[in-house]
Amino acid sequence: MKARATVAADPDRTADGASAPAGGSGAGDGDGGETRSARTGRPRAGGVPGPRREQDGITWRQRLRRDRTLILMTLPAIALLLVFNYIPLLGNIVAFQDYDVYDLGITGSPFVGFDNFTRIFDDYRFWEVLVNTLVIFVTQLVLFFPIPIAIALLLNTIMSARVRAWVQAIVYLPHFFSWVLVVTVFQQMFGGAGLVAQWLREHGHEGFDLMTDPGFFKFLVSAQAVWKDAGWGVIVFLAALAAVNTDLYEAAAVDGAGRWRRMWHVTLPALRPVIALLLVLRVGSALNLDFEQILLQRDQVGAGASEILDTYIWWTGIKTGDFGYAAAAGIFKGLFSVAMVLGANKVAHMLGEQGVYSKK
Hints:
Layout: H1 2-9, E1 34-36, E2 43-45, H2 60-66, H3 68-86, H4 105-108, H5 115-122, H6 124-144, H7 146-157, H8 161-172, H9 179-190, H10 195-202, H11 217-242, H12 246-254, H13 259-284, H14 291-301, H15 303-306, H16 309-318, H17 323-350
């Protein structure tokens, strides 16, 4: 009892009366070195290294055993990604072959080097189609991209949760329609026998047919894309708006800022990183217009106004059996898209945004 009382009274002494090291409990290293606490990870006096944290010493087998449920959940997605995205990349070898799908196959078709790519660069029609694709993309970018932002800002100002839910459901619904249904709806509305043309004729005006007007085609497909997918694009911007600190709106209101001032100085700066990211991704898919949408309306307005890169590859490559040409055009399309993403991301860095990846 005396020994225990002595230890309790003097923590620097041990039970047998010997003095403990000045640097704390445990033997020191003699040079006043520090170790790290097992609980906090901070340096502690003495020379005895504390026990390492569990995460620092965990092995990959232990991680595998710990995360086996999550790994099993991701295996189907990984398998689909491999089967439909990465394994087909091996088929790009036909771009360097005089590919015969019926008799020789991949292993028997002779290599021709870059002849298929030379054919692409010498094909004036290919460049006309490329320019037409970019024109349609720019039209959709200017007319379509700002609309989800405007809808998100409008929904954000609606105070009634029930009204907001009804509006969201209405604008989201067309996203689940197929392009066949979307084109049919526009045909019934703006075709030569559509509701608008019939109403004009009934009131003594001349009707029109926007569905067969080549000059209006790029605006037509942009309007169809807006009606179908604008509501779906609102989801991302609403999520970004939900993360805005409401104290900023209150502080701006106290300073005398009206609704438009609060939107300009609080809401839009909060959306700017998301806008920059989506804009970079959108530019990267400049050549990836909706194949089904264009193909359904190709014969109505003619190939000169409606032909895009995907339909041109389908018509001149796959439909005629020239798979080598189609594969070469696909590789060109992929490299062009990568260059567009890198260029747009560089512009985003110049404007102070992160873009797809941060600037090192």
